[in-house]
Amino acid sequence: MLSVMDLFSGVGGLSHGFRNAGFKIVLSNEIDSDIAFSYQSNHIGVNMLNEDITKIDSSYFHPYKGNVDVIIGGPPCQGFSQKGHRNILEDDRNFLFRFFYNVVEYIRPTYFLIENVPNILTTNNGHFKKVIYDMFNEIGYNLDSAIINAFEYGVPQIRRRAFILGKYNGHISLPLGTSDRVTAIDAIEDLAFLDSGEGEEIQEYKFTPHSFYQSELRKGSTKLFNHVATKHSKLAIERMRMVPKGKGRESLPKEHHTKSIYSGTWGRIIEDQPSVTMTTRFDTPSSGRFTHPFLHRAITVREAARFQSFPDTFRFYGTKSSQMKQVGNAVPPKLALKIAEVIYRDMTIPENIVVSGKVD
């Protein structure tokens, strides 16, 4: 079976997509123990390295050298947003990116995939993009990159992220968008209508699915997990009641205009459009357009997971803040699947097969 190593995995949105495409995840790394627990609970049998991976001796990776087909991950790169033409490898904030590069250089997988913020490709007129290309070209990889909107790949969410796909001694392109388009209401209409403070971590489904997307994500699930509404203050509920469908802060009287700097604050998710980008604070109406389309509360973890395209069988563990971090920081599994399928097809065409850095 084709093998994958997932570095900086989070809860495993990328891993889930690659597993569904037929890959085997042989190693995953996540430094946060609560998130690592959620990953392990949903990816049974994967070797999880719950450590600061930068402190692991390189000898740990020796058994994987030449035995991993793809390395995937989203290494944090805060230094990419700075001004100037400083080499990205000289910025301490990009140390984790350097580590990802070093692991690829050491193990030499046939492919690698990086997910990151769009700035990694656009800042300083593409200077950092050129640096990245030069780095990997020098060790034999050809790259393709793009800023991809998850909505164009069957995910009911506007989520733009940069992806960089590399292949050793060969060429491969990121997939084009699909014709599938899923709206917010298509994603969550079958979930229980909860009021503020209602819901339980494990409950029964109350409604049958109303869309293909809902049926697809409910497949194999007998219980509804993580569908618990935040208990809002009376003032917050009063404000949400004043906001009609599809509207936001502009509908509130001036005395209710908070000082929030977030775009879409107090806004309702618009039913017939994709949701806005899920962040790690989607339970707070003042943090963006995260109010339910017609109920007077913010969306739940399960609703956010639906917008991210996680199946209902995928359960999130830990505190509410940890669950939101797991969902908000993840790569949508349906998008990961589309990219994984491109790699899988490329690997199974005989003339394209490369083994351990050498043409077979």
Automatic annotation (TrEMBL):
Note the NCBIfam families from the entry.
dcm (TIGR00675)
Coiled-coil zones = none
Q: Which reactions does this protein catalyse?
A: a 2'-deoxycytidine in DNA + S-adenosyl-L-methionine = a 5-methyl-2'-deoxycytidine in DNA + S-adenosyl-L-homocysteine + H(+)
Q: Which GO terms fall under biological process for this protein?
A: DNA restriction-modification system; methylation; negative regulation of gene expression via chromosomal CpG island methylation
Instruction: Write down the top EC class of this protein.
Output: transferase
Its Enzyme Commission number?
2.1.1.37
Query: Sorted alphabetically, which InterPro entries does this protein's record hold?
Result: C5-Methyltransferase, C5_DNA_meth_AS, C5_MeTfrase, C5_meth_CS, SAM-dependent_MTases_sf
Tell me the PANTHER family matching this sequence: CYTOSINE-SPECIFIC METHYLTRANSFERASE (PTHR10629), DNA (CYTOSINE-5)-METHYLTRANSFERASE 1 (PTHR10629:SF52)
Q: Report the sequence similarity comment from the record.
A: Belongs to the class I-like SAM-binding methyltransferase superfamily. C5-methyltransferase family.
User: What name does this protein carry?
Assistant: Cytosine-specific methyltransferase
Provide the active-site residues from the annotation. C77
Any one GO MF annotation of this record = DNA binding
Q: Which UniProt keywords apply?
A: Methyltransferase, Restriction system, S-adenosyl-L-methionine, Transferase
